[in-house]
Amino acid sequence: MSGKPVSVEPKSKATAAAGHKPRKALAIVSGAIVFLILIGLGTWQVQRLHWKEGLIATIASRMAEPPVDLLAAFKADPDVAAQEYRPVTVEGTFDHHFERHFLATFKGQAGFNVYTPLKLDDGDWVFVNRGFVPYDRKDASTREQGEVQGRVTVTGLLRPVLGEKPSSLVPDNEPGKNIFYWKDIRAMAASSGLPTDAKVLGLFVDAGDAPNPGGLPVGGTTIIDLPNNHLQYAVTWYGLAAALAGVLIAWLLRQRKPA
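^ that's the sequence the OP posted. Answer follows.
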């Protein structure tokens, strides 16, 4: 066996360049894919922006319309969600013994929105959100003056019911304690004490701000909260796409410089 050292020939520039090409191609392809994804996300947010602006404009226009008869509107179009925030009027008689309480806040104060069933002329019932009462005025005996009797006309906004709890973060309702965290009309009706054969319409009416005797409940507490951050999101996604494009271009320019 020879004792001569074995020399290792360095890779040629051509061999090194050949090994570098696949990595360069992979980087370009990967960057292009991510770039397209970012552009797609930005474009989607722009589309959402136009949709949200249209929805806000529709609601504003709808709320500016004169009130219509609730039953006529409901019979003409049973899709309440498509008419949400539409001003309506409805006549009937409140039964305050069956009121339900929805946990709420108003002007920084904790309390409840009072949902009282209104009996209509045809015998059906509709739950009316009469407004807010402070936490310590939940018991109707503390605000008897506001428990209006006899036939009334309610003017307010048409609101749809929820088919299920909106989020797992929302607590479960406590019908036994008459405390509701989300508006489950079935549970509200079943726990209220209404007759078992009572027909309750699948909608709510949020009463307007007409004052009640004694000042409670405080009406007109409907919260219209439609966050519109889509422009910010679009700018963010497009900005990331532009930054990625700048990085890729700078990297490619460096790759073209001779070693």
